[in-house]
Amino acid sequence: EKKIFTVQGPYPVIRSLLRARGWVERKLPDACSERETQQQQEEKEKGDGAEQEEAEEQWDEDADGIHDLMSHLVRDQLPHFIWASRLRAINCLLLQQDQVVNHYTRVNAFTTKDGLCQNLRNLPWFDQVDPDTFFPRCYRLGAPDERQAFIEDFRQTAARSLLKAALEGARNTPAGAKQHLKSGEEPGESCVPHPMPSTAGPEPPLSPQLVEEALQVCRQHLGSLGHQDIDGDPPSPHRTGIDWDRFLRDCYRVAHEGARLVLSQEQEEQSRALLQRLVEQLPQNGMDGDCNVWIVKPGAKSRGRGIACTARLEEVLQLAGGCTAPLAWEGEWVVQKYVERPLVIFGTKFDIRQWFLVTDWKPLTVWFYRKSYLRFCSQPFSMHNLHPARHLCNVSIQKQYMPAQGQDPRLPRDQIWSCRQLQLYLAHVGRAGAWHQVMVPGMKAAVVGALRTAQDLVGSRKSSFELYGADFVFGEDCQPWLLEINASPTMAPSSAVTSRLCASVQRDTLRIVIDRRNNPTCPTGAFELIYKE
Asked: Where is the composition biased (Basic and acidic residues) (predicted)?
């Protein structure tokens, strides 16, 4: 009846569900198991694109002798269904055309951070969609052209952030205390606000020339967005006449150390008009914030390993290996714009793990799971403190920290919510329609967009399927921002919510890939077919 299966890894739910269907397990040969154990150790040390299971996870061997006996009887038979934590385990077996396998080859085109970063740029060739509307801009620091593009982006974002901070300060400054300087006034000319501060008061504001330089950078950026420089060379740092090291230091002082800027009336009007024009051109302006924080990530590691947030250009380049990167490093590190204005719940940041299933690449066939779960940070969100406990929601990171003292009692103790609890919260705060009208449609579009750009790169195989876990964070407007896509998403029952949902998604996956083959009208659980070419 072709009901022999092999399971590699801690998947007791899959094993139990298949046995309940009358399937018999063929256990992996000892040599294959030893080889896989060695590969797991090597991958743990260097990191790979899959979200590996926790090392301490174990699974119970079935004590029922009948299953051991049946396994012994089929030890020389090829399994017809293979579920493994990673593709390498399957290489121990000589695959036949009709064997069903839970992996595709070459999925690193979208399941590694550098692969996703590189391939999403091609999305406009596949669809009339701008990846900047759902994927925070990202650069591979090992590629020289992308590294330079990041440096220019960092400077442009610093200039916009400076103008935002200056306008915010202008709104909070009493009218009588404003300076009425002329645009372009040189440093040292009437740069102290009225009334004169005492010697014990705050430091004098920074030079108005800093605002002029920020306006210059923004004008040039706006011109490049409008293709005004399409026939000319892009503006170089030397042609702008700006001392970038000094400019970025001053921007940092404004954003993070409270240094003051005083705008002339003309500068204030120019800043508002220029920022408004940039808002119309930059879909990520709303989530950019005004601190110019970026997140640096190893290109092919999972579970938050090696990730750091920083607001300093020199720290980004240092974390990624210095100012020059050999070709062997190309694509190994990525830097991505941090979402500075996320949706927070009770003052705490969270992200969401969203599953989806691909059952064919030609034609591309995608199933979206209607259940998902949230992962909370253990400390309150703050842009003035970039500690991982406040910003990185990975369970593997947050379990290293204790919850904050005085944490809002409405937050879950195990730092996990279901998407249903999120919907109840949104309804409570007057945003009941956000989940079905903004969040879910945005996540579906992002998933399909990412898969379409990688479709020609992935190894398609008719008898394969694969379950993936996409991580999203939401902006203050509930717009989803795709962070990464994980192969082999963890099924570890780390909480009551994940214990229930992980079992549910495994059960429904088998409904799609086994039951539906024989009965196309069978129930598909919480899976929804969202795309089929």
From this structure: 29-49
Same domain for 219 and 309, yes or no, is yes
Instruction: Examine the domain organization and report whether 404 and 462 are in the same domain.
Output: yes
Q: Are 499 and 366 members of one domain? A: yes
Would you say residue 311 has pLDDT above 60? yes
Q: Which amino acid, residue 513?
A: V
CA torsion sign for 197, 203, 207, 212 is negative
Output the average pLDDT for the chain.
84
Which region, left, alpha or beta, applies to residue 504 given φ > 0 means left and ψ of -120 to 50 means alpha? alpha
Distance from C-alpha of 344 to C-alpha of 329, rounded to nearest angstrom? 36
Cis peptide before 363 (omega within 30 of 0): yes
Which parts of 186-264 fold into alpha helices (H)?
208-225, 237-240, 244-256
Kind and range of the H or E element at 52? none
Q: Which of 463, 444, 448 is nearest to 513 (CA)?
A: 463
Statement to judge: residues 289 and 318 lie in one domain:
yes
Q: Is 462 exposed, middle or buried (0-12, 13-18, 19+ CB in 10 A)?
A: exposed
Same domain, 518 and 408: yes
**pLDDT tens-digit profile of 228-283?**
544 445 555 445 689 999 999 999 999 888 888 888 999 999 999 999 999 999 99
